[in-house]
Amino acid sequence: MVRGKIQMKRIENATSRQVTFSKRRSGLLKKAFELSILCEAEIAAIVFSQKGRLYEFSSSDMQKLTERYLNHAKGGEFNNIAVDQYMQQLMRESVSMAKKIELLDVSQRKLLGHGLSLCTCEELEEIESQLERSLCRIRERKAQLLMDQIKHLKEKERLLLEENASLRKKLPVAQEKEIVLNCSQSSQGSDIDVETELFLGLPQMRC
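User: That's the sequence. What structure does it adopt?
Assistant: Structure tokens below.
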């Protein structure tokens, strides 16, 4: 089967876009690592996700490789001020990411019921609404799993009923053979001599 050519455009579905990003990012960093090992190349790769999360790979010190790149890109005329500005930009992005991670951690703790003492009534209502939506999705998934199990059991029951019906059709033939066998054994047992107290002649006199 010939694989179709992938059209290079933005993936509209958010889930598919995230899966593709994860796979291709891992592949990119893996290839960078392999190239640095196989060819002794100095490689630095920096990737920012759509949500601003930083992923990077460096075969050596990232800062030194960055300075080397900036100097080479400007023909060696890139001064230390420009390097410092670039590094400061990276630091600001790193701090921004750290704040986002911290907010996500706080939100997760609140969903687990921790750190609610400082929450306002509106915040608690929002947390409650999030939990209700999550619980609704969990129940839908649970109901789907139960329906799948019921469907599987019904199919198993159908197969057992068909097997039982097939066995019932074969049962009368087996019973007939058993009856014939029992009758044969009874006729053989009737030829055995039976001893009786029958006596022919005059009865003996008792004194």
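The CA atoms of residues 175 and 181 lie 10 Å apart.
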